[in-house]
């Protein structure tokens, strides 16, 4: 409900416009469905604003191509074709990241996660994108593949107008502490509890 | 995480494949962000499967055009152009629904909500779409503009393979009772609490 009003006015010396356009660090966490889907929905909004959007998909296998990738790449194609919307890049871990030409070892997920994060740091420093989707990035943090202090400092001190959304279960408390917006997706009822498996179009 | 396994095997006489492809009634509720965004993310998955997707946006004013509408209509354009993905229709309340040529009164929201629901019932009966997004449909239900018993019976007894996702705060308990999947988006932290207003690309 975009009509909602702030419940407090801060004394940060910013004008309403400056405060309104302040770049956000968002986290979608919890055990429920919708963490990634909502992040990809945000990518639609960014595309519509003509923003450069970078999606970095951690954890999921390269064999697994989800519908959102095809759809967002189709929107990127419209941008290339006639300048509609913004450019969208989709990079995923699993058999080497898109920007590194070499094929990575499927086994060495830790090294791949670290490589992905190093590239994201470079891009944040260059202000390459306006919106970053770090999908399932909580897992490599929790598994110790990426250093949480480095993540917190990098995201907190990123330059310019760069929005970042991080998804995944069990987000690290230090990440939540620096986030501007945190939503917990809570599972109230799920078909898997009734013995139903995931299905195409719904889970991917 | 699509790797998740069912926690129970039901004795419903269905094969795994039949059970897997059973149409779902999904509800995104709670006070947190991401209810609608996640539903529009599901529309991307449906589009990618070549499904016919119908979005019915309740409550939001017709003057308010969100980024997802532009993006999903662009994807629909790709379908029309060369058959990529599926067709997506976006209908919204506010100055009359898209299918009714007359301009509705801005004031009579109750009648417009009832008209929207009547059309959705017709479409469910005709099996017009494979995925229905009933965005912010919990509000007209809670305000008594649409009869909850009618909603429950219609959605429960809908024919064929039609997935439905309903979004909005305070979903009616009877709706939750018949839903297959319920996610509650809980607000943990929101920039509005720190005095920040909504901004383009993030809230719309």
Radius of gyration of chain A from CA coordinates: 17 Å
Could you name the CATH class of chain A?
Alpha Beta
Q: What is the total tally of β strands of chain A?
A: 6
What class, by secondary structure content of chain A? alpha/beta
Please characterize this protein's 3D structure.
- The structure is a homodimer of 204-residue chains.
- Chain A is an alpha/beta fold.
- The first copy, chain A, has one domain (22-185): P-loop containing nucleotide triphosphate hydrolases (Rossmann fold).
- Helix content of chain A is 36%, strand content 17%.
- Chain A is built from seven helices and six strands.
- In chain A, strands 3-2-4-5-1-6 form a six-stranded parallel β-sheet.
- The two termini of chain A are 27 Å apart.
- The interface between A and B is large, with 81 and 81 residues.
- Strand 6 (181-189) of chain A pairs antiparallel with strand 6 of chain B, so a sheet runs across the interface.
- Chains A, B: It is an enzyme of class 2 (transferase).
- Chains A, B: Residues 1-22 are annotated as: Disordered.
Brief digest:
Chains A, B: Keywords: Transferase. The structure is a homodimer of 204-residue chains. Chain A is of the alpha/beta class and 204 residues long.
């Amino acid at each position: 409900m975009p009509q909602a009003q702030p419940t407090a006015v801060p004394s940060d010396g910013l004008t309403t416009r400056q405060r309104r356009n302040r770049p956000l660090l968002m986290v979608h966490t919890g055990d429920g469905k919708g963490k990634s889907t909502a992040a990809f929905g945000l990518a639609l909004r960014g595309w519509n604003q003509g923003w450069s959007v970078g999606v970095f998909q951690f954890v999921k296998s390269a064999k697994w191509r989800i519908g959102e990738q095809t759809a967002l790449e189709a929107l990127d194609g419209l941008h290339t074709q006639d300048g509609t919307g913004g450019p969208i890049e989709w990079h995923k871990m699993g058999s080497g990241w898109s920007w590194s030409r070499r094929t990575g070892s499927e086994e060495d997920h830790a090294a791949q996660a670290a490589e992905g994060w190093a590239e994201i740091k470079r891009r944040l420093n260059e202000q390459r994108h306006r919106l970053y989707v770090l999908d399932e990035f909580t897992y490599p943090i929790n598994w110790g593949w990426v250093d949480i202090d480095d993540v917190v400092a990098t995201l907190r001190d990123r330059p310019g107008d760069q929005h970042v959304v991080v998804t995944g279960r069990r987000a690290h408390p230090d990440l939540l502490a620096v986030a501007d917006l945190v939503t917990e997706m809570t599972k109230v009822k799920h078909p898997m509890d009734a013995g139903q498996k995931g299905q195409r179009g719904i889970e991917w």
